[in-house]
Design a protein that fits this description.
The chain has 389 residues and is an alpha/beta fold. It contains 17 helices and 13 strands. Helix 2 links the parallel strand 2 and strand 3. The two termini are 14 Å apart. The chain binds uridine-diphosphate-N-acetylglucosamine. The site of uridine-diphosphate-N-acetylglucosamine has 20 residues, from helix 1, helix 5 and helix 11.
């Protein structure tokens, strides 16, 4: 039996973990035992607990309850807690997702104990090291033993950083295995799409008209913490809502909710809070989010995951950042990067409002990334176990 420790902590990686846990419980229970560690980076029910229930993720055996803090303190507390658990559990490998501080802490604690790291969503780059996530994923990739890469672009990124894409087993962190596997979030979106079709209360409860509202999400610290950027984003929302008489629904991350109070100009904040077309709602569950995505007209976001989900459900997307890791979306014309420039946002809206077809390419795999990953883990870890005996 292969023992994997999965480390999660922030909303997107809790959702990503659902795909692998589902594949393990459907097909690999006799070969893989998964122990889940929650760092507690996200702790509000609607940022964490709700996903365990809704996506049927096994309950974490450990919760470090680190909560919010400066990045240094938060990461340090996680490293300390994870190290103690790894020593106690002695797993064959540790599974890490994406690029959050929980990912970085997992990578640091694990590599120092010489335990193999399996990085899911490896190779993704924004080429902007001002983003905490960019630093976290680069470091994690460079100490990993198995790298599961969602896109061809990710493979190219790793080649540029000197990774040999054709390594052979036995893999190690000096000779990592690199696999193009598709996106586990595509697995999840396909799997939960039908469930979302039967759970559309969020559309009715907010009086949204199908295919006639915009879905917007904002949570990146570059946007929330810089008043000029946050004001520009909300000014563009007001302009679009006024010009097109269209609703904009915004499930708001707790950090954005706090920061609009202090960082938006008083007049703009009042307009936003009292606008008949601007609907600020609490963070949505994953299934609610899919329902909102499937039924909207267009998406505006600074989230990486939501950009891809827009594409999965054939909705055009305005990316409210300086760059994107998912550059293939821009290359096929499904998304436009506008940063927080009001005139670029308005121009992109005009252009994307008339987009009526999507290239049906399989840019993010076949919806079975998690099964593929499990099979590769079994191949690698079985070899490692037999060579240790
Ligand atoms: C983290 C990830 C980001 C990911 C995002 C998804 C890092 C560096 N960033 O950002 O990549 O896209 O999660 O949501 O790891 N807060 C609450 N309740 C919570 C969690 C956070 O109120 O349950 C508030 C706190 O004020 C906190 C702030 O949000 O200080 C930021 O939380 P944090 O976990 O540091 O980063 P995120 O912005 O959520």
């Amino acid at each position: 039996m292969i023992k994997l420790i999965t480390i999660i902590g922030a909303r997107p990686q809790i959702i990503k973990a659902a795909a692998l846990s589902r594949a393990i419980s459907n097909y690999f229970t006799t070969q893989i035992e998964e122990v889940i560690v929650h760092t507690g980076q996200h702790y509000d029910d609607n940022m964490s607990a709700v996903f365990f229930k809704e996506l049927q993720i096994p309950q974490p055996k450990y919760n470090l309850n680190v909560g919010s803090n400066s990045h240094g303190q938060q990461t340090a507390q996680m490293i300390q807690g994870i190290e103690a658990i790894l020593i106690n559990e002695n797993p064959n490998a540790v599974v890490l997702y994406g690029d959050t501080n929980s990912t970085l802490a997992g990578a640091m604690a694990t590599c120092k104990l010489n335990i193999p790291i399996i990085h899911i969503e490896a190779g993704i780059r924004s080429f902007n090291k001002q983003m905490p996530e960019e630093v976290n994923r680069i470091i994690t990739d460079h100490v990993s033993t198995l790298m599961f890469v969602p896109t061809q672009k990710g493979i190219e990124n790793l080649k540029i950083e000197g990774f040999n894409i054709n390594t052979k087993i036995p893999y190690s962190n000096n000779n990592p295995g690199v696999f193009l596997c598709g996106d586990v979030m595509y697995d999840n979106s396909l799997y939960f799409s039908k469930v979302a079709d039967k759970n559309t209360n969020i559309i009715q409860n907010n009086q949204l008209i199908k295919n006639n509202y915009i879905l917007a999400t904002i949570h990146r610290n570059q946007n929330t913490d810089e008043p000029a950027r946050l004001n520009a984003i909300f000014e563009s929302f007001i302009t679009i809502a006024n010009q097109h008489q269209i609703d904009i629904v915004m499930p708001l991350h707790p950090r954005t909710h706090k920061l609009i109070q202090t960082n938006l100009k008083y007049e703009l904040l009042q307009k936003v809070l009292n606008h008949q077309h601007i609907k600020i709602i609490p963070p949505a569950t994953f299934i609610e989010m899919i329902a909102l995505e499937k039924n909207c007209f267009l998406i505006m976001t600074d989230s990486g995951g939501v950009q891809k989900e827009a594409y999965y459900f054939e909705k055009p997307c305005i990316i409210l950042r300086e760059e994107t890791e998912w550059i293939e979306l821009v290359e096929i014309g499904a998304a436009i990067v506008t940063d927080t420039d009001v005139s670029k946002i308005l121009e992109a809206y005009q252009k994307l409002s008339h987009l009526n077809s999507f290239n049906d390419t399989k840019m993010y795999g076949d919806g079975k990334a998690a099964e593929y990953i499990c099979n590769e883990i079994i191949k690698h870890c079985s070899l490692k176990i037999s060579s240790n005996n």
